[in-house]
Specification:
The protein has 32 helices and 20 strands. The chain is an alpha/beta fold. 36% of the residues are buried. GO terms for molecular function: DNA binding; DNA helicase activity; nucleotide binding. It holds the Pfam family PIF1.
Length: 838
């Protein structure tokens, strides 16, 4: 997207965004190109960017998300100081804000990768909301001492337009902490003021006397001459004719609705209705057009979207000449032919992180398709913001709020196109003095040019210091090591040793990086820009080569992962967390390779954006892992038995533990059973398994022993306890407990059912009791795939009969499996309740 090269302030603002990390407040009168600037930055920046806005409609129009949805903020006022804070439903402090935010892994990663946050319609954003954003970014980016956690902010808006909505009770809570409700009085901006750039090249108006009048209104500088000129447009009895193209600007919705209803009612033609086509998530408050649009031939309408082919613009007014199913014909004054208006599509987006490129991307989660039209004999001043009118009747009345006159007047292209229904006096023109004072703080072009050079140097220094800091890799290793330590019983012993070695390698490289930082600082302190500093360039090239080599070695080391587990779920988590470590290393390696020929800020930003990460080819699941078990007494035999076990699992599509767990394979290789009777003494081998797979395992063991002259060692094993026959005269025992004991001995559900002469469903019911108590993990009894299938339906389950769930899930899932998953959810609910109490 191109911009006006002759607009110096536009170019300066763009350079601050492209080449520095200074936050920028971009403002300007109506029609100076603020929206164009937003679109230009979105299309041209190399930075990881997200766009947010205070309302649903504003977010849709800006092509972003709402502030509250993106940051998961509550709507209650945020109190910036916790000292003496009394928790209530009416407000929230830092501690409780972070405690309430449910930030999943994907959202957290988006925040961590974010480099530029654009807030549109900043005039409507309350001061405490900006401080809450600051708290969230610092916390989830682990950069607690930097404003907004190191993210660059671009604030776009005109403070003389729509103000933040603050109820009296809300301001009563906030007033002890803030001078005003406006964003510029937030705590975070008092400590780190943004560059203040006001675009002054006006594209909407070109009539100098009208521009001068608007400036006087904007700055509370109206004089007698100004009032006389403005009120020269007063005509209380003005009645536009049908095709004049005037639109009335009113203060309230009901006034606009009455005018539109009266005018459309005068037309003799019939209504034609057009229903919006809505897909996915699209909330009613965010609808950019009428869900049910009712139009008539000869109705006056307004376009509410800019056409890609520039046939019409947002605010253009015309008259309907023909209504078809998929085309509305609108004749506009001055046009030779009617415009063929078709349905337009608005998108509701959510920001996600591409796992391969690690780029923040827009994910379309809903669409809204409708003709970009609305009845346009009248519209509220609030809804007119951002629109352009050639002719407007301004119905001021006595209900004008402070500053609304400016908004209404600035929608128009010429003074001659304005008609006032009532005279304007000074009371209706008075803008908030706090806004007027703030607007005078804008930076002049010469100051901006100097600040740009200083900010470029500071930004390049930050980029290089961050580049040669390996903390991101260390942070990724911390949860990985913690997980291995917590689940060590499920993995082989070598897993922890390997993990500790990985941590040691990274720690050693981090030490080198820490020692390099003081050298880097000395070079960065020199006057020249880093990208123009020859001494620095030589040092960077040498350092990047060193770190790239060692990072490459770390990548290779990840491929040597020795961790093995029989739990598919735990392997999945292990693989996922190790993938995070892999991505952190790969990103840093890719960045280092971008410095092979030195550092250029723009070229480096483009190189960084090209990062693509391949999946790490490591799988800790034993059924997929083909490496030998080195801590076994007979590793070669262990490997042969595991290959057999995995083959049987693959043929029957069952989890490994239902054939032979890692513990069972360990016993087989340690005790070397030679007969069916000896095999029965091995944990996990009951009657059913003996009949189904016993001989296959024995054949491998016997062949292995014959080749090496080995004999059975089963006599060294403590014999299994024999199950006693049921005594009819004995007191009744806990039948669930009996089942649980047999399960602990390693018997499968089927074996327990046969041994107890009960149905499989009954045994599953017994075990469900222990799942609900937390004694048995659900993953031991139900495969991960089936858990994922059952859980979403089971979470909303109410009642005792599971027939409705079974009907929805079909024959792939048994009644028992459904009951077991419900039991696991009961356990989790109980556990969560206990934690809340504590």
């Amino acid at each position: 997207m191109l911009h006006d090269d002759q607009n110096t302030l536009f170019t300066l603002a763009a350079d601050f965004i492209h080449y520095t990390n200074r936050s920028v407040f971009l403002t300007g009168r109506a029609g100076t190109g603020k929206t164009t600037f937003l679109k230009y930055i979105k299309a041209n920046t190399n930075k990881q960017t997200a766009v947010v806005a205070p309302t649903g409609v504003a977010a849709i129009n800006a092509g972003g998300a709402t502030i509250h949805s993106f940051f998961q903020l509550p709507f209650t006022p945020y109190v910036p100081e916790s000292k003496g804070f009394q928790r209530s439903e009416e407000s929230i402090d830092r501690h409780h804000l972070l405690g309430r935010i449910k930030m999943n892994s994907d959202r957290r990663k988006v925040l961590q990768q974010l480099e530029l946050l654009i807030i549109d319609e900043i005039s409507m954003v309350r001061c405490d909301v900006l401080d809450a954003i600051d708290v969230v970014l610092r916390h989830f980016r682990f950069r607690y001492n930097e404003p907004f956690g190191g993210v660059q902010l671009l604030f776009i808006g005109d403070m003389f337009q729509l103000p933040p909505v603050v109820q009296d009770d809300e301001w009563k809570i906030l007033s002890p902490f803030y001078k005003s409700p406006f964003f510029f009085d937030s705590k975070v901006l008092k400590d780190d003021e943004p560059v203040h750039i006001e675009l002054n090249k006006i594209y909407r108006q070109n009539e100098q006397r009208f521009i001068d009048l608007l400036n006087k209104v904007r700055n509370n500088e109206m004089d007698e001459e100004g009032f006389n000129l403005l009120n020269s447009r007063y005509d209380a009895f003005f009645q536009p004719s049908q095709h004049d193209g005037y639109i009335t600007l009113t203060t309230h919705n009901h006034k606009a609705d009455i005018i539109n209803a009266e005018e459309v009612g005068k037309l003799k033609s019939n209504f034609v209705s057009y229903k919006a086509i809505i897909t996915g998530e699209f909330y009613e408050k965010s609808y950019p057009a009428e869900e049910l649009l009712q139009l008539k031939v000869d109705a006056q309408v307004m376009m509410i979207k800019n056409d890609a082919e520039k046939k019409y613009f947002n605010g253009k007014i015309g008259t309907i000449t023909k209504l078809e199913n998929e085309i509305v014909h609108v004749q506009c004054k001055g046009d030779t032919f009617p415009i063929e208006v078709k349905r337009e599509k608005w998108e509701n987006i959510r920001y996600t992180l591409n796992p391969s490129t690690q780029q923040v991307e827009e994910d379309v989660i809903g669409t809204f398709e409708q003709f970009p039209l609305r009845l346009a004999w009248a519209i509220t001043i609030h809804k007119s913001q951002g629109l352009t009118f050639e002719k407007a009747v301004i119905d001021a009345g006595a209900a004008f709020a402070s500053g609304q006159v400016y908004v209404a007047l600035s929608r128009c292209t010429t003074l001659g196109g304005i008609v006032l229904k009532s005279r304007i006096n000074n009371n209706g023109l008075k803008n908030d003095e706090r806004i007027v004072q703030f607007s005078r703080q804008k930076d002049v072009a010469t100051q901006l040019a100097y600040a740009l050079n200083e900010s470029k140097k500071a930004y390049q220094s930050v980029v290089l210091k961050t580049l040669f800091d390996l903390n991101a890799i260390s942070k990724a290793v911390e949860p990985f090591k913690k997980y291995v330590q917590e689940t060590l019983k499920d993995f082989n012993e070598e897993a922890l040793v390997w993990t500790e070695m990985l941590e040691e390698k990274i720690s050693q490289l981090q030490e080198v990086a820490d020692k390099f930082q003081p050298q880097l600082k000395l070079l960065l302190d020199e006057k020249a820009l880093p990208e123009q500093n020859e001494n620095l360039q030589k040092r960077i090239i040498a350092a990047s080569k060193y770190f790239a080599e060692h990072l490459q070695n770390l990548s290779q080391y990840l491929l040597s992962s020795v961790a093995v587990t029989d739990s598919k779920q735990k392997a999945m988590v292990y693989n996922m967390i190790l993938q995070d470590v892999h991505i952190a290393i790969a990103q840093k390696l890719h960045a280092m390779k971008g410095l092979e020929h030195g550092f250029n800020a723009e070229a480096f930003a483009m190189h960084k954006k090209k990062f693509v990460s391949a999946n790490l080819k490591v799988n800790a699941y034993s059924a997929a892992n083909k490496t030998f078990k080195t801590d076994s007494v007979h590793p070669a035999l262990y490997q042969q038995l595991r290959v057999l076990r995995d083959k049987i699992c693959a043929q029957k599509d069952i989890p490994v533990y239902l054939v032979a767990s890692g513990a069972t394979l360990d016993e087989l290789t340690r005790y070397l059973p030679q007969t069916v009777q000896e095999l029965a003494q091995i944990s996990g081998f009951g009657k059913a398994k003996l009949e189904s797979y016993g001989q296959q395992f024995l054949d491998i063991i016997i062949a292995y022993c014959n080749q090496r002259n080995l004999t059975s060692q089963v006599h060294e094993k403590i014999p299994k306890k024999e199950r006693r026959e049921k005594d009819p005269n004995k007191e009744k025992t806990d039948t669930k407990l009996e089942t649980y004991k047999l399960y602990q001995e390693g018997k499968t559900i089927k074996e327990i059912a046969e041994a107890r002469n009960l149905s499989v469903g009954t045994i599953e019911g017994h075990l469900a009791h222990y799942v609900s108590q937390g004694n048995i993990s659900i993953e031991e009894l139900v495969s991960k795939e089936k858990i994922l299938l059952i859980e979403p339906l089971a979470k909303n389950f109410e009642g005792n009969a599971v027939n409705p769930l079974k009907q929805q899930l079909g024959n792939d899932v048994s009644y028992g499996e459904i009951k077991l998953v419900i039991a696991s959810l009961e356990y989790l609910k109980t556990k969560n309740n206990e934690q809340e109490i504590l």
